[in-house]
Amino acid sequence: MLGHGRQKGVTEFYRGAKEAGNLLKKICLEIAVNDTFLEPAIKAIVTGAKTGDG
Fold it and tell me: Against a cut of 0.70, is the pTM above it?
């Protein structure tokens, strides 16, 4: 599934002009894992999803 959300405080530059970038792409993942792989899967997703911002 794809969508977009409103984010505050995001500023982008478009053709040299400062624009409020309020719409950012969002992705929803639905993942099925068995109990053995649950914790490793969660750790991998959280580690990979971190951007270093905020």
Answer: no
